[in-house]
């Protein structure tokens, strides 16, 4: 039997949707976060970007407020990416930090403060694979102590945070990363923080240490989340979604996903019981670029409509779609929610948009008496037929009224108490 999740893991799953923010020196070049490595840039010349890092347009209050409107309950910000540049005051551990740039501001402090004011949980991304420190290749044990101390600064100096999100152990697959020491440092100062270590492209969903609280699936949402061994620690699952093909700011990457694909990815993650991080890359001075801001606003319209069905709900192993392969059910302690896909818009004899007529959708596992079913987007009642003895339910999922299309429509099922 699967064990019950720890309180911090349950609260993390309740948050459901997060915002991922990639920002660093690479953002000034606007060609992606791996540009130093992939474009084989001279390290010394590349790292001179620190002399131009002003963060002049970084407004943590605006970014966090926009994340909140998007529907994010937590934000993961890159405190240090693989380039090795820290966005916070390392108190002498490194001179490759924001305090040695023209910005001269602890940007992580500003970020945490803005999160707290808005009721958003701050998470700290930390790259473990590091191109800057020579210790990484030449004295790995010394590097691990450097890494541990950099994490200790984050754990000690910013008050309670939501979690730590590590990325890069996949670069040295067989190395002893001394995870007990690293994670032990976090537990000493942040006992309620989530610990997440990105498993990489080839080890999606794998648990690397008993302190891990959530496993990752990169830009891939599986059809099943691995929550741990029977009677072992329950772990959450998390997937990520880039709006185009890069994590960091890439001004010439025009290959943006459609809004439909973004919404469907968010819904599918919740369908399988995973959290999802929607990623943006700030530009070189710290702005959310207009197109990504627009995507955040658009997604926010859908999450505002779907709010009651998205966050504290879980996949329902008994109440299932019985026909349409993309429909599914999520349930909380009081209600069930039907996620209905592939509906059309209702037109007329001159403009036919595919939502006209009856559209029956069936489900099984509904043995409790249903008192009412209504759409979340307009509270309109839905005609339904139920056989509570057999547990079958059929609704008439009428199409969207003209002028509307929510991509995925959600029906609230009120069950008799």
UniProtKB/TrEMBL annotation:
One Gene Ontology term of the molecular function aspect: alpha-L-fucosidase activity
Gene Ontology BP annotations: fucose metabolic process; glycoside catabolic process
EC number(s) on file: 3.2.1.51
Annotated signal sequence range: none
Key words, A-Z: Glycosidase, Hydrolase, Signal
Gene Ontology CC annotations of this record: lysosome
InterPro entries from the UniProt entry: FUC_metazoa-typ (IPR016286), GH (IPR017853), Glyco_hydro_29 (IPR000933), Glyco_hydro_29_N (IPR057739)
Enzyme class: hydrolase
Ranges for domain Glycoside hydrolase family 29 N-terminal: 10-304
Gene3D superfamilies listed in its UniProt record: Glycosidases (3.20.20.80)
Family recorded in the similarity comment: Belongs to the glycosyl hydrolase 29 family.
Function statement: Alpha-L-fucosidase is responsible for hydrolyzing the alpha-1,6-linked fucose joined to the reducing-end N-acetylglucosamine of the carbohydrate moieties of glycoproteins.
Protein name: alpha-L-fucosidase
Taxonomic source organism: Lactiplantibacillus fabifermentans DSM 21115
């Amino acid at each position: 039997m699967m064990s019950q999740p720890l309180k911090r893991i349950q609260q993390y799953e309740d948050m459901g949707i997060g915002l991922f923010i990639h920002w660093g020196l690479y953002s000034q070049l606007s060609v992606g976060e791996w540009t130093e490595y992939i474009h084989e840039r001279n390290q010394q010349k590349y790292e001179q970007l620190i002399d131009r890092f002003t963060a002049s347009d970084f407004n943590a209050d605006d970014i966090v407020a926009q994340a909140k409107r998007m529907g994010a309950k937590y934000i993961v910000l890159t405190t240090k990416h693989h380039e090795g540049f820290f966005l916070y005051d390392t108190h002498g551990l490194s001179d490759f930090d924001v305090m040695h740039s023209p910005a001269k501001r602890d940007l992580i402090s500003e970020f945490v403060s803005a999160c707290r004011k808005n009721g958003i949980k701050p998470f700290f991304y930390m790259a473990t694979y590091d191109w800057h420190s020579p210790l990484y290749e030449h004295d790995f044990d010394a590097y691990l102590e450097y890494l541990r101390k950099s994490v200790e600064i984050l754990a000690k100096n910013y008050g309670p945070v939501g979690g730590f999100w590590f990325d890069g152990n996949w670069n040295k697959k067989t190395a002893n990363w001394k995870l007990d020491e690293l994670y032990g440092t976090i537990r000493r100062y942040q006992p309620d923080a989530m610990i997440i270590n990105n498993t990489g492209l080839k080890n999606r969903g794998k648990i690397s240490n008993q302190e891990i609280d959530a496993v990752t699936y990169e830009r891939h949402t599986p059809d099943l989340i691995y929550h741990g061994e029977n009677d072992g620690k329950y772990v959450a699952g998390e997937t990520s979604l880039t709006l185009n093909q890069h994590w960091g700011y890439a001004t010439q990457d025009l290959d943006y996903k459609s809004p439909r694909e973004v919404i469907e990815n968010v819904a599918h993650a919740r369908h399988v019981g995973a959290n999802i991080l929607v990623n943006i890359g700030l530009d070189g001075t710290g702005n959310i670029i207009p197109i990504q801001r627009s995507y955040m606003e658009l997604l926010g319209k859908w999450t505002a409509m779907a709010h009651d069905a998205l966050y504290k709900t879980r996949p329902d192993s008994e109440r299932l779609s019985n026909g349409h392969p993309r429909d599914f059910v999520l349930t909380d302690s009081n209600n069930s929610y039907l996620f209905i896909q592939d509906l059309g818009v209702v037109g007329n004899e001159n403009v036919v948009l595919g939502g006209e007529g009856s559209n029956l959708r069936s489900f099984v596992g509904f043995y409790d008496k249903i008192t009412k079913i209504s759409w979340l987007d307009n509270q309109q009642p839905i005609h339904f037929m139920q056989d509570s003895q057999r547990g079958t339910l059929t609704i008439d999922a009428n199409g969207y009224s003209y002028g509307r299309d929510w991509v995925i429509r959600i029906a609230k099922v009120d069950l008799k108490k």
